[in-house]
Specification:
Length: 192
């Protein structure tokens, strides 16, 4: 079994926090395990809980559209969440739930080693970087402990505020440009 499949099966049968009691299905990350970009959302919603896959509801459609507008398909990237089980009524995950689930995210990052992590929304921003206002900081690139991060809004926020759809699209464009720039710089170093 590949390392990523082993995380998947651990997540699927996990009972480390009380979200395991209310979920239908746990939702492991999904996508290309050789991806250069890894996206992190908050937690599964209703559709994700029913299907056992991340970002398959309205927020997922908005995300797919934004990715496509920058020439990315979901098969090019890897998509996961801070917590892998749906919180009741989609409430924000509690500190203890985020902490219990954290080792799975760390493992995903360790295996995939993305060149850039795209943080979507406040929960992921807080969990990974200790930030608290994604709307003020979106579009920024952050470097921490040798890892690069790109900050953007959560696609679900665009369901009720459609202006954020174009914000997300323009952020995806700068994300792809940032990645291209990183790769060019790496090649430059290699050939020097
Ligand atoms: N919102 C999230 O944060 N993650 C999902 O998988 C779906 C909606
Ligand atoms: Fe396990 Fe994470 Fe689900 Fe909690 S949210 S039961 S820690 S997989």
């Amino acid at each position: 079994m590949s390392e990523i499949d082993s995380i998947r099966s651990q997540v699927i049968s996990c009972i480390k926090c009380s979200l395991s009691k209310t979920r239908t299905n746990a939702v492991p990350g999904k996508g290309n395990f050789k991806a250069e970009i890894l996206f992190i959302g908050e937690a599964p919603g209703r559709n994700e809980d029913l299907k056992g896959e991340p970002f398959v509801g309205s927020a997922g459609n908005i995300l797919s559209e934004a990715l496509a507008s920058s020439g990315l398909s979901r098969d090019d990237v890897y998509i996961t969440n801070v917590v892998k089980c749906r919180p009741p009524n989609n409430r924000i995950p509690l500190q203890e739930e985020k902490e219990s689930c954290q080792p799975y995210l760390s493992k995903e990052l360790e295996i995939i080693k993305p060149k850039i992590i795209c943080i979507m929304g406040n929960t992921a921003y807080g969990s990974l970087l200790g930030g608290d206002s994604i709307i003020k900081n979106r579009g920024k690139i952050v470097e921490k402990d040798g890892q690069r991060y790109f900050l953007t809004v959560h696609p679900a926020a665009a369901i009720y505020n459609p202006e954020l759809k174009s914000v997300l699209k323009s952020d995806m464009k700068s994300l792809v440009e940032t990645l291209d720039r990183l790769k060019k710089d790496e090649n430059l170093v290699k050939t020097q």
